[in-house]
Design brief:
The chain is mainly α and 229 residues long. 88% of the residues lie in helices and 0% in strands. Helix 1 packs parallel to helix 7 (202-228) and helix 2 (45-91) packs across helix 4. This is VIT family protein.
Length: 229
């Protein structure tokens, strides 16, 4: 198996994991807001569960369509960039050569070495080199839009199960607090995981996710309380 194939497989796998983590995170956050908001308006466990179920169903479809559209658009943009560079190399090869050379030189490489490196890279793969240097991606690394949509659609309702079960299984006096604690723990996990996969600051992303969860649950609960009264 080639290194190029390994890289493509890794990119596709990471994309599926990213979509699943984000789907689960949104499922937890969205449905917890719904069920806690409804719990502020009524103590009827069946009504709360149905509201959460409807939110989970709608959210799963919405997330899947969003992922499909987003990833498909990204892939289309990459394909378009490839065609643009193919045309550019046929009509203005010297301009593309200078662009790549200047990028290397801007990194502190001597002009002579930058010219040599560009000549060798362009001779080996002119299209791949110019696409990478101009647009920042490697050729033929498109990820699966359908795979991302399916991962998100499955993960969203799985994430939503936690707040739905907590709000319906715990006693009335304890269920809002119990659900809030369970949701915050889950959000800490998904926030950390999403940051780890994307290379972002894990601590900051985890705190941000938890704060968003607290804000969502507090606001929706008090709105529900006002409506219920």
């Amino acid at each position: 198996m080639s290194k190029e194939h390994d890289k493509q497989t890794l990119a596709q796998r990471n994309n599926l994991i990213r979509a699943a983590v984000m789907g689960a995170n949104d499922g937890i956050l969205s449905v917890s807001g719904i069920v806690i908001g409804v719990a502020g308006a009524t103590t009827n466990s069946f009504a709360i569960f149905i509201a959460g179920f409807a939110g989970a169903l709608a959210g799963a479809v919405s997330m899947a369509m969003g992922e499909y559209t987003s990833v498909h658009s990204q892939n289309d943009a990459q394909v378009k960039a490839e065609k643009v560079q193919e045309a550019a190399l046929q009509t203005q090869y010297d301009t593309e050569f200078e662009f790549v050379k200047n990028k290397y030189a801007a990194q502190g490489i001597s002009d002579e070495l930058a010219t040599q490196a560009t000549r060798e890279m362009m001779a080996n793969d002119a299209l791949g080199t110019t696409v990478r240097e101009r647009y920042g991606f490697s050729l033929h690394h498109e990820v699966s839009a359908i795979g991302a949509a399916m991962a998100s659609m499955i993960a969203f309702p799985l994430g939503s199960l936690l707040p739905m079960l907590a709000i319906t299984l715990f006693p009335v006096k304890e269920r809002v607090i119990a659900t809030g604690i369970a949701v915050l723990i889950a959000l800490a996990i998904t926030g950390y995981s999403a940051a780890h996969l994307s290379g972002a600051n894990e601590r900051r992303a985890t705190i941000r996710n938890i704060v968003a969860g607290i804000f969502t649950m507090v606001v929706t609960y008090y709105i529900g309380t006002l409506i219920g009264h």
